[in-house]
Task: structure prediction
Amino acid sequence: MGTLDLHALDSAVQYLLSQQSFTAALTRLRVKLASSTATFVWETVDLASLPINLPDEIKSGWIFHLRRDVPSGAHYHPNSVQHMTLVRGGGLAIIGGESRLTTSFNSPRPLEDRWLVIERGVPHEFIPEGEDMTVVSFHTCGPQELEEIACDTGWMRHYEGPNA
Result:
């Protein structure tokens, strides 16, 4: 996926951030995280609701809300490429063993600095610092197909669907 495609994803996130439905989703996620012991919680994004022509490869959209000062847990997706941008908070991203500070979606930095593209099978982990972190992710597989494999145990889960 090239820079032009990242522009489409960037436009989709800009649209989402302007919607009351995104604010409502974030409120639900904050409540859900506060009442659980999970390191992160999520909701899917209805791609059909976006007035943006997304790249054909994109099959699902997600809002993830991560607990502050707690590592998300290193994991990988064997069946999807993840395109992710930070919309709230900040912290550290560890992708394929390399660490970097996250860059906010609203940063004036170049598009390639604001988006993380995580290839299939590449371990990644996020460590929110000082406050909860919210990211928007787009995946190349459908919501019920997305698999997460924990790096330390090999445990596999689905985020959505009958196997979730």
In short: The CA atoms of residues 50 and 102 lie 25 Å apart. The chain has one domain: 3-158. The chain has a mean pLDDT of 95. The longest strand covers residues 60-66.
